[in-house]
Amino acid sequence: MKKTSHETNETMEDKAILVSLITNNLRLSDEEAAYSLHELISLAETAGVTVLDTMSQNKESPDTKWFVGKGKAEELKAKIGELGATTAIFDQELSGAQVRNLEAFLDVKIIDRTQLILDIFAQRARTREGILQVELAQLSYLLPRLSGQGKNLSRLGGGIGTRGPGETKLETDRRHIRDRISELKRQLQEVKRHRTLHRERRKKTGIFQVALVGYTNAGKSTLLKQLTHADVYVENQLFATLDPTSRTMELPSGKEIVLTDTVGFIQNLPHDLIAAFRATLEEVCEADLILHVVDSSAEMRQVQMKVVDQVLAELGAHQERLTLFNKLDLCDPAEVELLSTEGDFLKISAYVAADLDKLKFAVQEKLMGDNKTFRIPAEKGDVISLVYRVGDVLENGLDGDDMLFKVRVNNKEYEKHGYMLAKYDESTIRDKGELVDHEV
Question: Any coiled-coil ranges, and where (predicted)?
Fold first, then answer.
């Protein structure tokens, strides 16, 4: 008898028990351990899994065979039978041997945190580049876990709902997988080359690039949408957007910049994923300014901020940053007062127009320097041309044989060429009490 589509969906639905092991070397507080497990629940629900129950265990070190202790594994097996679970999801990364042993003992699909995140990314990828990056990360994760899988091979690689690289790939040998990884790297290298060309063109035109970074669900896409009126997907869920989006934003001065939304970070972001997305994340490294978006309403925002700092350090992104404590509309006044006041920061809500204006002025101030006035002999065409390169000319006029320019200076350009303009800078000359010598 043929099953109806409803019955098929019911059968395929993943029902999971989540398991967390806290070991001495992790040095997590009870609060951090509880938060990590809560985050795993959110990840599972984002992947479309029904969470039936959770289990946790404190142990000196992971069991080499079962990951958790044998007694906890037996307890988990009993709970699986009692609740009718089809999947066990672990909050830490498992070795291939541990996955095989647990699958043989529990007779359900075994997923670890890394594979769960990779699966969510597989669901979210829409562009060709995103799909390539996710497949590379999945295959890099799978390769060391291939040997001796037998009947468990397709189960390991399938992920939630058997999505992923696909069973046809998983049934091939190591050499085939390695060949595919090499091909994906080659294609992504081509993507990187194109990105580099685009960046060089932007630099030649003098367009500033600003990157939005932050923990997943901190409100980056909402900010991009509000600041640029971009038609981007916004949803209150983890990794709602995966593929980076760039839009132009107009500063109060009228100058346009490029604002780029990047993929959200999370605790224990898989290294294979960071490696695969390096071409995309290089946009952060090349940005003139990084806007670190923080969910002010998150209880563990300090942990989230630390995770973002660690990932940026791993990427080698050390540019100037402005921290944006977002979602003030979800905080009470007492919580707002407790927000960190270290470094450069703004407290905003993406839905308050006055806050967005304040942010635009702050970005402009970061990218553009002070206003300066230059007095340049009219015949000095090369120097006058340089003035237009180092900033935005706000006013210009003739005073006798000299041209006067009021300029909002571009900090980066002025660092390169400012020494050539120093003798024409009226404020510098006045401070020194010198007479203007217009001859070079």
Answer: 167-201
